[in-house]
TrEMBL record, chain A:
The lineage of its organism: Eukaryota, Metazoa, Chordata, Craniata, Vertebrata. This is Ras-related protein Rab-4. InterPro entries: P-loop_NTPase, Rab4, Rab_GTPases_membrane_traffic, Small_GTP-bd, Small_GTPase. GO terms for molecular function: G protein activity; GTP binding; metal ion binding. It is a lipid-anchor. The small GTPases Rab are key regulators of intracellular membrane trafficking, from the formation of transport vesicles to their fusion with membranes. Rabs cycle between an inactive GDP-bound form and an active GTP-bound form that is able to recruit to membranes different sets of downstream effectors directly responsible for vesicle formation, movement, tethering and fusion.
UniProtKB/TrEMBL annotation, chain B:
May act as a GTPase-activating protein for Rab family protein(s). It comes from the Eukaryota. This is Growth hormone-regulated TBC protein 1. One of its GO terms (molecular function) is GTPase activator activity. The lineage of its organism: Eukaryota, Metazoa, Chordata, Craniata, Vertebrata. It comes from Umbra pygmaea. Keywords: GTPase activation. Residues 79-271 form the Rab-GAP TBC domain.
Amino acid sequence: MSETYDFLFKFLVIGNAGTGKSCLLHQFIEKRFKDDSNHTIGVEFGSKIINVVNKYVKLQIWDTAGQERFRSVTRSYYRGAAGALLVYDITSRETYNALTNWLTDARMLASQNIVIILCGNKKDLDADREVTFLEASRFAQENELMFLETSALTGENVEEAFIQCARKILNKIESGELDPERMGSGIQYGDAALRQLRSPRRGQAESAQECGC
Amino acid sequence: METEKNGNITQVHQNNSTKAKGSVDSYGFEKPDGYESYEEMMTEYLAVLTRRSAKWSKLMKGKVKVENNLKVKRYVRKGVPNEHRAQIWMAASGAQAQMEKNPGYYQSLLGMDQQRDPKLEETVRTDMHRTFPDNVHFRNSSETCLQNVLYNVLLAYGCHNPSVGYCQGMNFIAGYLIIITKNEEKSFWLMDALIGRILPDYYTPAMLGLKTDQEVLGELVRVKVPAVWQAMAQHDVMWTLVVSRWFICLYIDVLPVETVLRIWDCLFYEGSKILFRVALTLIRHHQAELLQATSMPELCERFKLITQGAFTNDCHTFMQEIFKEPGSLSMGTVTKLRETCRGRILAEEVSVSP
């Protein structure tokens, strides 16, 4: 394949049903709002290469079904995710109340180090708001999450959410807090990075990753 | 939505023989890309339908029940024409008998306003505008909008079977049943037949039946298409990633409408084993394409691609293939595999939970 990138990050989009997860993903990838689709069953994939702090990062995004009972199936998708968008709907307190459960799942099943950005979606529906910005931002702080209010309809903060999350992961790689070569980190080197970084030892690590074990 | 006393949905739509207008097919779905080749196929298929239709009319003359014999089985596998479909599904699945045994039951479920679970109502409502927005009959803007009918059927089913309630996927199934039967009450009883008797427990909160069947398919592929099984293992792809939709939606939105309906003909008459035949045929027929994948995402993508194209569009040939391509598949084998896989999953779940 001809795409070149420095890193590949596995991302999850999680949160209750009807919060707009698929619409966020669609807005991010296609730059338009799409609300005429069936809801997601199981998992859908999207990917996009973004440029963050002079690195090309390919995001491989797993968009999951939100209904509670699907969680027992979708949990198996979490393994090895580097980042996640945790989505609630600012017009639905119920979706906000469910955040703790989603968070527990993500940290337990993906990785303790998973970088999560909380997204209060449907920002455009301010008149129907049930969750204040302040309240959610406190929750984010307490749980060490980044936080943005987004609108998949207008596109506001959508790209920003993905980029902020990716940037934080890159920072953690640079500071040594995250080791891309650790199993299940959700991070892989891309071709471009390999060309710069490849040393005999790195070469070995990469081939070990390719076999998928 | 207006419903007549007998539950028939009024005002609703053209049957298969009238030409669909403009950009939608005869069921009201927007025509997908590549519809021209589909239409070409349909022109030929129409001759088949006409022939089958005459045979079915003769077979069913003066009868309400569908007999259980080899002739009928052969007829079902060759396809039930649309004008007989509702009747055959109702009779073959036992839905007709249940409906007759329980007159007024469906209406009474809709009448129990006070005891209704508000959470059930909310969950069903969340999916109303996300069920077939590509179908003119399910759009809000449509005069004949079937969203209320869909809502009623799902809500009634949730009250009828609280251990299932509502699970996403059931909305698509109910939608198809409504399109075919054009009748709320019949759609409800067909849901009851499918979820209560024909399918394993796909839709309960634990979704154990679904998890089991995903693994059963894996085991069948291991034996029947070992190269693909190996590729799945090599790229570390869990079966749930590629087939959960196939099973949960009974191939709706996975395969073309006409093909889904032909599969359902057999599903109602022969049972859930047919779902494996379809999956195995798709996988075996396209194994060369699947084996070209060099990564996990690519393999997942290819699993999507193999559901499209001429092979699945041509429903008549496809249905012949599913009884040839995967080879023999006895109910005994399926039952045994289901037991083994279910046991394995339960054991794993016990060891994982704290």
